[in-house]
Amino acid sequence: MCSKIMKKELILSLLMFVFKKGMAFLSKKDSEFIKIIDELPENFGFLITVKNTHLSVSMKKSKGVLIYAKNQKKFDLILEFSNLCSAFLVFAGFIPQYQAFAEHRLSIKGSISDALCLTDAINRLQTVIFPDIISKKLIKEFEGSGLKEKALFTKFYLYALLLSR
User: Fold this and answer.
1) Pairwise CA distance, residues 90 & 106, whole Å
2) Is residue 64 part of a domain?
3) What is the spatial distance between Cα 78 and Cα 125, in angstroms, rounded to a whole number?
4) Is 140 left (phi over 0), alpha (psi -120 to 50) or beta?
5) Is residue 12 a contact partner of residue 49, using CB atoms and an 8 Å limit?
6) Is residue 164 part of a domain?
7) Listed residue (49, 21, 43) closest to 109, CA to CA
8) How far apart are CA 84 and CA 90, in angstroms?
9) pLDDT, tens digit (0-9, with 9 covering 90-100), for 65-113
10) Residue 52: left (phi > 0), alpha (psi -120 to 50), or beta?
11) Residue 165 forms part of a structural domain
12) What is the structure's pLDDT at 129?
């Protein structure tokens, strides 16, 4: 049992790393993503965390792009997963975020309008990093990814993951 939890935690930490890198990458390279995060105020900070674990992603908007917020203590929006399994299901693409919220697997502390904006940004990220078959299940109004998304997918995995430090 303990090894299953450790495996999920390891996989989840990798998925959260990809999420963090993807958000930073798209905030610089994708015009649709940039339009979405332009709605957030400057220096807007958010934290996504998993209750009773050390796992978290913290980012803030600075000069129009999302950057990692390692030392930030106060956040405008906090998304907290109730447990490791709930976070794993969302980050791995098994259930959409709105379903996790509806099932009380995810709680929000902060403005609902900011949370909806972040949800749109996460949906855009999911269309780039997940294949169409998964994205269709996760995003209510999914139209299919085109050549632009496939090019972003390739760039993201080449630059953001393989060549980053």
Assistant:
1) 10
2) yes
3) 19
4) alpha
5) no
6) no
7) 49
8) 10
9) 999 998 888 999 999 999 999 998 888 888 888 889 999 999 999 999 9
10) left
11) no
12) 75
3-state secondary structure 145-157: CCHHHHHHHHHHH
Q: How many domains does the chain fold into?
A: 1
The reply to whether 103 falls in a domain is: yes
Domain that holds residue 147: 2-159
21: tokens are 């890198």
Query: What CATH number is attached to the domain comprising 22?
Result: 3.30.1050.10
Ranges of H-type helices in the chain: 2-29, 31-37, 84-91, 97-102, 112-129, 132-138, 147-155
Q: What pTM was computed for the model?
A: 0.80
Tokens encoding 53: 């674990």
Q: What's the token pair of residue 24?
A: 């930073």
If we measure between CA atoms, which residue out of 85, 83, 80 comes closest to residue 7?
85
